[in-house]
Amino acid sequence: MIKKYSKLAGVKKIEVKGLRHSHASYMINELNVSILILSKRLGHASPEITLRHYAHFYPVADETIVENMTGNIKVKTSSVNQVQFMNNNKIPKVA
Questions:
Q1: How far apart are CA 35 and CA 25, in angstroms?
Q2: CA–CA separation, 92 vs 60, rounded Å?
Q3: How crowded is the C-beta side of 87, counted as CA atoms within 13 Å?
Q4: Cβ–Cβ contacts within 10 Å for residue 28, how many?
Q5: Could you give the CA distance from residue 45 to residue 82 in angstroms, rounded to a whole number?
Q6: How far is CA 36 from CA 1, 13, 31, 81, in A?
Q7: pLDDT tens digit string along 49-89?
Q8: Do residues 28 and 58 make contact, with C-beta atoms less than 8 angstroms apart?
Q9: Which residues lie across from 91 on neighbouring strands?
Q10: What global pTM score does this model have?
Q11: Which residues, 6+ apart, have CB-to-CB distance to 58 below 8 Å?
C-alpha cells in the first residue's frame, strides 16, 4: 500500500516504521504536542517509552517555548528606594 501511494504521490517509498517516526517528529516539532498526547496517540504503554524514542526532538520544542515567553513577563521596579548602599554595605536610610 505504501509503495502504491508513494508512487502516486511522487515521493520516495519509506518503511512503515519511518512513516511512524516522521509522524511523531512532525507532531513534536510543528505542533508542539505534549509527550502525554503523543504517547497515547502512538499506543505506548507509558510516556517513558515515548521519551526513550523521541526525547531528542524536544530541545526544539523548548526553544519554541522560550520564544513564546519572551516579552510576556513585564518587570516593573519601584520608583522609591528604601535601601541605601555605600560600597557593598547596606546602610539604613535616615527618614
A1: 11
A2: 48
A3: 1
A4: 21
A5: 57
A6: 30, 30, 14, 47
A7: 999 998 888 776 677 778 888 888 787 887 877 777 777 77
A8: yes
A9: 84
A10: 0.53
A11: 28, 35
